[in-house]
Fold:
Amino acid sequence: MQVVNPATGAPIGAVDEMDPGDVEAVYERARAAQAAWADRPIGDRIEVVRRLRAAVVDRLDALAADLTAETGKPISQARNELNGLLPRLDFFCDHAAATLADETVLAEDGLREVIAHEPLGVVANISAWNYPYFVGSNVFVPALLAGNAVLYKPSELASLTGRNIADLVWSAGVPEDVFGLLIGGGEVGAALLRTGIDGVFFTGSHPTGQRIAVEVAPSLAVVQLELGGKDPVYVADDVDPVLAAESLADGAFYNTGQSCCSVERLYVHERVHDAFLEHFVHTVEHFVVGDPRDEATYIGPVTRPQQLAVLEAQVDDAVAKGATVRTGGHRLDRPGSWFAPTVIAGATNGMAVMRDESFGPIIGIASVAEDDEALALMNDTEYGLTAGVYSADEDRARSILRRVDAGSAYWNCCDRVSPRLPWSGRGHSGIGSTLSTSGITAFTRPKAWHLRSS
Structure:
């Protein structure tokens, strides 16, 4: 399978794609190896993850270079992802033992009631290309710590990085049968779902997530889906529009807008709308678009070439319905898959740019008259991943955000994820959660112990 650089369109290497017919054998080896892995003391498994962390630090520059080469992520942002991985690993290591420990909930008259957390068994980790280290580690690290075997299928658009991740895990001390690497496209993923996995943890689009849920439903395997988003932010009339514009431009265009929690819709109070819009456009027009290997580059190529047509269609739809393109709005005439950073003013919720996931360097901005109008428009979506409010008044912001149907709420910030907080979606944004201590117990089944001493 060829690996193509989206910045140039040129192949940069090849990886061996697994034959879908071999997936069952990898699963059987994982099933046979899982019990011994689960029997190892939790302290041993934690030490393995600490060695994984040390290996990431040692190889950080080379890992970042591969990530940039195959996804087009600007090199500074690739290093940011790897550096951001370290505190996530620390969190899991620091909290796994206590979270997975047996919990005595009653002890009286010779009777004890105890809750134990047992591993699911063999779990599938079907990961994503936009943040392969973040998205993958949110699953395979707590899964391994909880005693599971993991069948890890990276996105075919991040196969080099997927192979690097497997090498890191194996070199840290996880047996290859406990962490099975499945390189390939959709046929390999489909074959994985036909095995006897005990759980599937997927990050990707809503349509693919639906198909996965249907495929594994007969087995009643645990399903966790981290799907798309159409994340809104409301800018109230009591903020500094310049500061808000700078923050939200970064939230919308970081990683070339290819983040699950990128800001994708902006609703700006009419009193500050014009000042906000002017500075927002000014900020976007000064983002450096260029070679992702260059330290100065902020906007890189679109990783999936097919997404360019989606972005073009959203621009055409918005213009046809009365919106104005303030900057960008077109492909860039250069090798690879490039789209100009795009700001659409006068957007409405009847436009595709405000309804359908963009996953690229484009944002729609609408003017609103008051808070309740903004709230109604923010909730006018099938997605429910994140939502934010920029306001000088915390009570005002929290009052709005309490009524927004989203898994994460932001006040005066956006596009951030914390290992200490659960990451979850609602509606078409998915089911289940990763991160926090709930993202550790997600890989376990509870067992209720009734223990009488006499």
Observations:
- The CA atoms of residues 53 and 89 lie 7 Å apart.
- The mean pLDDT is 97.
- The radius of gyration is 23 Å.
